Amino acid sequence: MDNLARGVAAAVLVLAMAGGAGAEEAHCKLYPKVDLLMNSHDLVGAGACKAACVETEGCTGWSYTPHTFNPKTGPGQCRLMAEVGEQAENDRDYCGRI
What we know:
Layout: H1 3-19, E1 25-32, E2 36-40, H2 46-55, E3 61-66, E4 76-81, E5 84-97
Antiparallel strand pairs: 1-5, 2-4, 3-4, 3-5
């Protein structure tokens, strides 16, 4: 599979996962009060990011930004926080608190 086909396949998967976010809060982004517990570009979808927060000791909030059509930057960015400093509305991101 060439790079373009891989990129399109990854984007379709990300959009499908983002569209089925379910219980996650959509359209918000959390910012940490202090340093992040984890910053990952390997997780796919808001559900995987939330699950990582549930499994990470001390995690109280998570924020997921899906990427589009750029396989060099990974499928998305998952940020886990011990303390949430601010929540902002965002048309593209997903977030939640544990």
